[in-house]
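hiii, so i know i said id send this last week but things got crazy w the move. better late than never?? heres the sequnce for the chain we talked about at the cafe, plus the structure i predicted for it. fair warning i was half asleep when i ran it
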Amino acid sequence: MVGLGTMGLPMARHFIAAGHDVVGCDLDPSRVEALGAGAASTAAEAAAGADAVLLSLPSPAAVEDAVLGADGVRAGATSGALLADLSTGPPALARRLAAECPALDVLDAPVSGGPRGAEEASLTVMVGGSEDAFARVAPLLDVVGALVVRVGGHGAGQAAKLCNNLVAGATMAAVAEACALAVAEGIDPGTLYRVLTASTGDSRVLRTRFPLPGVDPAHPSSHGFAPLFALGLMAKDVGLALELAERHALDAPVASAALERYRAAAREGRGGLDYSAVYRRGDGGEASD
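okay and structure toks below
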């Protein structure tokens, strides 16, 4: 398991609990120590002799280096091993990894569900790659996923994940604007939440990230916007979705508008907060306390 952050560490623990021998690798040695299993200092070392190498990393650049770098998976993996990237990135990178690692069964397998889904092993896993490779990796991904689906060939899993995060990001931006409007009109936040969750404006984003604090103690807004999924990462993913749309000469004005909101919030210092911190009270540009 290469990458033991808020997603990778709980997933690795589930693999151990399921009886797999796991070797962990992370730039932060304390995370490897927290796993309490085998340890490797490089991705190449982690991949040596492994039947499957899974990546859970924060950026496409990190994935590229972990696979194709001098100390990357490609340099150490056994021929025929599975390589599944559970991170979110561009479909083009997924196809490049498959093309440049012909000795490995490469799959893109981004996940949705956040840290809670990783902790509860209830993730949705969207897989791109060959049918044979999917058949091999599916039992492993079933350990952490409530739904594991082969979407198509290389890159299809990443494309599906970017579609998902475009919807989630744009929805959150719309919820934030609606809440700002409601506050300006003096509507009680709890009443607004009850109305929206019983109306056509309801969504999973609304039910997990209502941006007005105190309405639901499980929501990030009630804990200073402590991140379940960071705003900076949502900006990255919406940006990747927009780049994909541009590759296909598709207009995506809603994605463009949402991306600007997230980038503006990041410039104001909210990139490390949960992405529901895109909410701004009035015109002051401040997330609610």
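btw The longest strand covers residues 145-152. thought thatd interest u
miss u guys!!
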